[in-house]
Amino acid sequence: MKQIINHFTDDDLYKFTMCCAVIDNFPRAQVKYSFTDRDDRVYPEGFARELAAQIGLLESVTITGEEIEFMRRRCNYIPAWFYNYLKGYRFHREWVKVWQDADGHLHVDIEGSWADTILLEVKILAIISELYYLMGGDNARFDYGAYYKKTYDKGERLLDAGCVFSDFGTRRRASFEAEDTVVTALKDCYRSRQWPGRFVGTSNVYLAMKHDLLPVGTMAHEFVCAIGGMYGPQMANHIAMNSWRNTFRGALGTYLYDSFGWDIFSMNFSEDFANLFKGLRVDSGDNYEQLMKIVEKYRSLGIDPKTKQVIFSNALDTDSAIGIQRYASGCCQPSFGIGTHFTNDFDGVRPLNIVIKLIAAKITESWSFYNDTCKISEDVGKHTGNPDVVRRFMEALHMQCG
């Protein structure tokens, strides 16, 4: 089987920014992650064995001087010391346990230092997705010439509608070649003429380097969820925003607010944080309802929401992004992170609905126990974590938020 991940920066930018913030603020933290297939899919026989082999191959993947130079140039908000850490970073297969049960369902557990294991999630998800199509033979149906044209057409529609958007599709892409084709098509489309909209770049750092684009991204839920496990969900957003400010000073980017729901976040989103962060990211719930909550919050703080960016990234496609653009352009600066719709939209191929979520954390390796954590989504039925933990967190938050 071919090696699927061949480049250290074939990963989402926010894994690197979060890794930097973890080392800076929680250098001794330990974590556990767990894989979930939301469709409860049965994987081909031998899949776990092949996946374990691919994870082992990551041990040969190290960062290059070219990758470091690119990140220094395009991500100047990352402190210089972090690149010395990346130079010495090595993956270790012992951090990951992979198996299939008797029914063929896939299980993946990750445990170790947060600063180390944080760089595994996206790579493993990308491996699982591509490996699934390789082992099942679906990859034989991938017509990349037709896919380029299909993506180019999507780009034309989005750009003509005035959308500002990026590729967010690494974790559930059909293949590396699929995402490379997407980025090529969108870049070519954007540069073909002047448009009302703008193709900003890609979350994938390696592809941003290959195509001389801006790597895009700030943070993921795991940063807030781990802090929630260590300190409790009530103050998790406050501690996360303070930690982010400590590491990145003025370059705070957009904040992903929905790890424990809007209500508790809103209580922690004070005027100083609202002014410091460039904007907020909507990743669950009804996009229009969430937008109105954001607009009202900014107005309650005396801040014009038209000066703030709102990034929408919740299961978007071309039509839904254009609809939101028309609705939101009058009250904020909307932009869009589009994932699976870009990188896994081949005719007759069903994308995997897979995630790896952080489920437990402890602030130091000397602790004899972990604290459980979870993610409480704005989408009903999409909470992630042990149901007992979700229930306990929701009860604690209900006591605070009424």
Uncertain parts:
none
Helix percentage range? 40-55%
Task: Compute the separation of the termini in Å.
Answer: 54 Å
Class from secondary-structure proportions:
alpha/beta
Total helical elements: 17
Major sheet description: 7 strands, parallel
Strand percentage: 5-15%
- The oligomeric state is single chain
Count of strand segments: 12
Radius of gyration: 20 Å
Report the principal-axis shape. globular
H and E order: HEHHHEEHHHEHEHEHHEHHEHEHEHEEH
Q: How do the strands line up in the largest sheet? A: 6-5-4-10-9-8-7
Report the average pLDDT across residues: 96
Defining key terms:
five-stranded antiparallel beta sheet, 17 helices, 15% strand, 402 residues, alpha/beta
Q: Can you lay out the helices and strands and say which pair or pack?
A:
Elements: H1 13-25, E1 30-37, H2 47-57, H3 65-74, H4 81-88, E2 96-100, E3 106-113, H5 114-117, H6 121-136, H7 144-160, E4 164-167, H8 176-190, E5 198-202, H9 205-210, E6 214-215, H10 221-231, H11 236-248, E7 254-256, H12 262-268, H13 271-276, E8 279-282, H14 287-300, E9 309-312, H15 318-328, E10 333-338, H16 340-343, E11 354-362, E12 371-372, H17 387-401
Parallel strand pairs: 4-5, 4-10, 5-6, 7-8, 8-9, 9-10
Antiparallel strand pairs: 1-3, 1-11, 2-3, 11-12
Helix pairs in contact: 1-11, 2-6, 7-8, 10-11
Structural write-up:
This protein has 402 residues and is α/β, with parallel strands linked by helices. It has 17 helices and twelve strands. The chain has a seven-stranded parallel sheet. The longest helix is centred in the middle third of the chain and has 17 residues, at 144-160. The protein is globular, with a radius of gyration of 20 Å.
